[in-house]
Amino acid sequence: MSGEIIMTYAIAISLLVGAIFALVGAIGLLKFNDSMTRLHAPTKVGTVGIGAFLLASMLHSFTYGEGSMHELLIMAFLFVTAPISANFMAKVNIHRRACDTPPSPPRDDTWSTLNVPEEDKHVSDTAAPSHRI
Amino acid sequence: MNAFRWLLPHPLLTLLLALVWTLLQNQVSAGMVVFGLILGILIPWVTSAWWPDTPKSFHLSRMVTYSIMVIWDIMVANVEVAWIVLTKPNSKLRPAWIVVPLELKQPEAITILAGTITLTPGTVSADLSDEGHSLLVHVLHTDDPDGVRDEIKSRYERRLKEIFA
């Protein structure tokens, strides 16, 4: 019985931790004022927020029902896919010139997102300035 | 050895697929483990054409310690970023671009490094240079961009070089 009470508290604490991190992520998304910094808050703080929710779900299933390990899979897929989406949002920002232009790389010519093929040069020259902030 | 290579081009991928399949079932039974192993053999074999250069070596035990270290870093850095979000006014925020020159060559290793950088809060890996010699990283707030670059190189890249050494 007392074990169940301890687990209930553990579940409640992980739910609270998850909620706090999710809230901070949302505040960051609203507060920051350029697209690159805004990318940081939700994508990062979100992983630990969701991680705490999943931990709560696992603890609950092991205490009150049949144990469930699906949460580990959700976690694994989240950790594999979250960097990809963040990377693509960053690439879109660079491509649309919505952020400071990054410094050029030391050894190669340019960043791959800014690397426009020769036959598309005229398209990007006309399209880019309209998105400049 | 050649027959083994032909049947199991990616032994670790086979194990991983069998493990994921078993976890998806949510209960361990011999039949499902065997079916997971069958999938784990079939899928790498069918998709092997899309994996032209497998990494020559891969130290699993080092990868495990690396993952534990990264998970710890994620939790510590999350609190730091939450603190920055809640207390730093926008005017005091100093975001920066950081260029990390890469010593890693294998695409798999660079992918893991970029993923690690993005998962640890406060840094996002944004782009790769056109020939893959440097990584562009965006930092949320730093007073010392060179220090962040050196930390990425010494803390993550050095270990990844050992994993794929």
From TrEMBL, chain A:
InterPro entries: PhaG_MnhG_YufB. The keyword Membrane applies. Coiled coil: none annotated. Keywords: Membrane, Transmembrane, Transmembrane helix. The chain crosses the membrane at residues 6-29, 41-60, 72-90. The keyword Transmembrane helix applies. It comes from the Bacteria. Residues 98-133 are annotated as: Disordered. This is Na+/H+ antiporter subunit G.
UniProtKB/TrEMBL annotation, chain B:
InterPro entries: Cation_antiport_E (IPR002758). This is Na+/H+ antiporter subunit E. It is found in: Cell membrane. It is a multi-pass membrane protein. The chain crosses the membrane at residues 6-24, 31-51, 63-86. Keywords: Cell membrane, Membrane, Transmembrane, Transmembrane helix. Belongs to the CPA3 antiporters (TC 2.A.63) subunit E family. It comes from the Bacteria.
